[in-house]
Amino acid sequence: MDVVSEGGTPWIRNAWYVACAADEIGASPLGRTICGEKMVFFRSSEGAVSALEDFCPHRGAPLSLGFVRDGALVCGYHGLATDCRGKVSDMPGQRVGGFPAIRSYPIIERYGFVWVWPGDADAADPAKLHHLEWAESPQWAYGGGYYHIACDYRLMVDNLMDLTHETYVHASSIGQKEIDEAPVKTRATPEEVVTSRFMDAIVAPPFWQMALRGAGLPDDGLVDRWQICRFTLPSHVMIEVGVALEGRGGYDAEDAAKASSIVVDFITPETETSHHYFWGMARRFAIADAALTDTIREGQGRIFGEDLEMLERQQANLSRYPDRKLLKLNIDAGGVRSRMMIERAIAAEQPGAEAQDIDTAEMVEL
Amino acid sequence: MDVVSEGGTPWIRNAWYVACAADEIGASPLGRTICGEKMVFFRSSEGAVSALEDFCPHRGAPLSLGFVRDGALVCGYHGLATDCRGKVSDMPGQRVGGFPAIRSYPIIERYGFVWVWPGDADAADPAKLHHLEWAESPQWAYGGGYYHIACDYRLMVDNLMDLTHETYVHASSIGQKEIDEAPVKTRATPEEVVTSRFMDAIVAPPFWQMALRGAGLPDDGLVDRWQICRFTLPSHVMIEVGVALEGRGGYDAEDAAKASSIVVDFITPETETSHHYFWGMARRFAIADAALTDTIREGQGRIFGEDLEMLERQQANLSRYPDRKLLKLNIDAGGVRSRMMIERAIAAEQPGAEAQDIDTAEMVEL
Amino acid sequence: MDVVSEGGTPWIRNAWYVACAADEIGASPLGRTICGEKMVFFRSSEGAVSALEDFCPHRGAPLSLGFVRDGALVCGYHGLATDCRGKVSDMPGQRVGGFPAIRSYPIIERYGFVWVWPGDADAADPAKLHHLEWAESPQWAYGGGYYHIACDYRLMVDNLMDLTHETYVHASSIGQKEIDEAPVKTRATPEEVVTSRFMDAIVAPPFWQMALRGAGLPDDGLVDRWQICRFTLPSHVMIEVGVALEGRGGYDAEDAAKASSIVVDFITPETETSHHYFWGMARRFAIADAALTDTIREGQGRIFGEDLEMLERQQANLSRYPDRKLLKLNIDAGGVRSRMMIERAIAAEQPGAEAQDIDTAEMVEL
């Protein structure tokens, strides 16, 4: 499953990735590596975000050590200034007309995030950015955070597309044995991979008891619980999760009888063995309760910190034994199908893509 | 002397190495790399220790992040459970009959340590474990500790088989110029290398004055001192050390006239440039005096910490100049002969071993 | 500009480099890597400094972990002792007559520094050491410090030969926009590269206001300011800097009307991506004012700390994109010419040097 096109990278280049939360870029520029590219992000005078290569063409200094002046990004070493598209606009004592342009990357600021397209700029299509209803509708509240994680971003995709790990990694918060026992169903369409699990008439684990209280519902009765994980390209996982009072319809229960939310996971490759993880939770209950948003963020941050250690140690093991074949079980179907979708998209980006075969020979029946 | 069989490792694979002190494995599993192999150690329900490869066949997570349940080791990621021999016994929602076995390593728990055989399991022979009288007899007391040291394990063998370094590295505790002045004698048999030194009618250095007081003997008179270093395969060094009141027979003096002990050194390779060092002292005087055990352990720990810095800096120098030839002097005979014994054993492990030549061309006369 | 002779190093080997400040070597030896060579510096009984390879021929321990006894350097591992020229003079229980010599490096102690010649000892010529008047004359005061910087030493040469960076990197101390605006003039002779800038009738920036007060001059009037950077082989940059009260002759003003000094920069390669930076300021005003020396040292240390971060991040960028071509502008002429001088000297050190071509094809007109 880890086959990478020769000389290629294990990620799709022509896609929108989350580069940062919108509020990470203020008066100062931000340097961050996305899909192996060193980038600097800054806001021009109109407030629009730009992304350029974080490398001054003069002497190679990182532009992210500079500052913004009148909407231009000024290198902090010798004062070369560039506009929002990477055209050098000014440098003391120099005629800059013939200076080479700095590479710029297509950017969209939307949904509280800055999205960047690391590949071919001509191919960048705003229409390819997902629509995220929870990020725009006043019916939803959102809180989230950021972790830098030293593992291949695909290990995080695997992690989120197989929630049986909750029973073990998150035993004290969201895990419960019923997750292991409930059958999981995976289906793939050309647009997404969906893996889902429904658990009826169970005791809510501590995190969900907290959520029930937040939603103004009793926390001590039986509930129907659901988990619907949706992978979409290039590497986003949205997970519909929730609990409803027992027998009220479960996932389809009326809002007043459930605590329902979406676990939001934007997984952006940094290098081949590290990624940026933007996590959060969008909810449709008690949306005006800012204290609840903080409580959920804190709980979720603690839970995802448990994943972090496991994933970094897993990466160390896989780096130590790179040729080892892993098992692919029914519970792995979500991750396996997601990786296949990534692989096909990477292959389709290669020159002469039609002629390429995707190696699925070692795929097991899922 | 650092010749390694092509593609091979600089250590013997088919031998018993100390993996850990017995009390390092309690309710939780322990992960440790031994001879380049990542291993996990745990106690099954009967309390017996098992060693498996620290790599879950499902997704490659380290099993050492898991837990023990009913004598089985359960992976902390998705719940794969293995028995003490590496056979997968259970996993939620899975039929595990066809799962591949996890590699297991032969283990013996004895003498307060867990011993592991990293090589060919079929060749593992409990009879090849050394007999250690001091570890079983009620006539002896023992205390010790553990250091992780970032150098080739053979530099530690060299260190212990040439105690002239005590004069310099341990000047304030066990060193004294008489060590340098006394002649050293080295002899090799097929089973061991022994290098010995006897110093008569000298002033005891501070560590031995402390030991004399502990043994109920005067600390201000002259003593006869001895050091008898014994190297045995794969990489153990036992050093008989002691002082007797002057003229009472030295090494052969009656117990009441001497403080006599064995410096215990189990040197277990971790990687090519690091090792696990299990050190301690077994003594035949004041064996009921637990406070003395602590005092000796503390003193010995401080002394071996001095070696640690020197050895790690020596390794850095040798890594920087890998082709440099070193001197081999009479005082180095113990280390040189020990390395020859290691080399022969490594060569004998290779396929078609009989046909192999050991390169001893550069050996000097010792 | 970064062309290095095949198999060669990016520095001149046959030259005097600053190894350390004279007071860095006291009773204990000092270990330091100079031009890729691990060296140990120590004072023999007469107080003269010696430099040897920091590698004991016995077992490879660093001699810098040892101690000095009766003018000999004694290895801290097994007591091998060497004289100031690297001849082994003694070792307990050994006849050392046939021991190989330890490599020794030519040394000069002068001007408050220890200078070492890392190349061919036979070629070492004391006459090639620069004369530094400020270091000997009672008309001057000096204070300075040391930084270890993780970048190619030539990036520091570039930095010091183009002071337009002061406007950006040191905006709050010595930078001012007039530096960018004043034309810079660069000329190269066979002995040095000189780049100079004169700024008349400007407001003194904070550092120079402090210096004016120190010199007993008013700090609130206009001044004439100058910067004359002189690069000499192998990698020293002396910068004449100062301010004079406006209209009193600028650089040529009488001493009573100016604060005049030399920024001293000895840049010694450690590895290909790190160097030792010995910085300081020699001044001809208020030379008896020790408190002023401290104030200047503190200010200069803070300023050069700003360079350190920029240079290390620049190095990281260049290491990430090693094939990227950089711009060479008029302001870079000083650095470009200095690197050409270094390159020619490196080429001249190669066997069959006459036949070598220096690649200047990519040089722009400066």
TrEMBL record, chains A, B, C:
The keyword Nucleus does not apply. The lineage of its organism: Bacteria, Pseudomonadati, Pseudomonadota, Alphaproteobacteria, Sphingomonadales. Residues 16-116 form the Rieske domain. Gene3D superfamilies: Naphthalene 1,2-dioxygenase Alpha Subunit, Chain A, domain 1, Rieske [2Fe-2S] iron-sulphur domain. It comes from the Bacteria. CDD domains: RHO_alpha_C_DMO-like (cd08878). This is Aromatic ring-hydroxylating dioxygenase subunit alpha. GO terms for molecular function: 2 iron, 2 sulfur cluster binding; dioxygenase activity; iron ion binding. Keywords: 2Fe-2S, Dioxygenase, Iron, Iron-sulfur, Metal-binding, Oxidoreductase.
